[in-house]
Amino acid sequence: MVDNRAAFERFVEIFYTQKRVREAFDFLVAGTYRQHNPTIPDGPEAAVRMLTPKFDGSPGSRFEVQRILVDGDLALVHVRASGPGRPDAAVADIYRFENGRIVEHWDVLQPVPEHPVHDHPMF
């Protein structure tokens, strides 16, 4: 049995913390990768091409991992994304595994408001 949690935690470290997109995708993403974000085509190469400027190519950007959840073939990472000249965002990336590789991805992004209507944090 493949340990999706250990592999996903390593993927998150390489991708979000170290911001090494190509290495993360080579490590864990299958060639049949299906992307549900409507702005990125299917396939790992398209994702690497679109994401590299936001990660590797953007030294001022930060991705603070808040939590990781793994349940069977599904994994989720909740991230606070920040960068110069743009408001912070709460990001939830959901991945599906098949045979120990990531084969599918969904994401949800929400801006972190400057003045929320309550005093409890989003993270």
Could you walk me through the main structural features you see in this protein, from its secondary elements to its overall organization?
The chain is α+β, with helices and mostly antiparallel strands. The chain has one domain (4-111): Nuclear Transport Factor 2, Chain: A, CATH 3.10.450. The chain is 24% helix and 41% strand. The protein has three helices and five strands, in the order ααβαββββ. The chain has helices at 4-17, 21-28, 44-51, and strands at 29-35, 62-71, 74-83, 86-98, 101-111. Strands 1-5-4-3-2 form a five-stranded mixed β-sheet. Strand 4 (86-98) and strand 5 form a beta hairpin. Helix 1 (4-17) packs antiparallel against helix 2. The longest helix is centred in the first third of the chain and has 14 residues, at 4-17. The protein starts with a helix and ends in a 12-residue tail after the last strand. The mean pLDDT is 95.
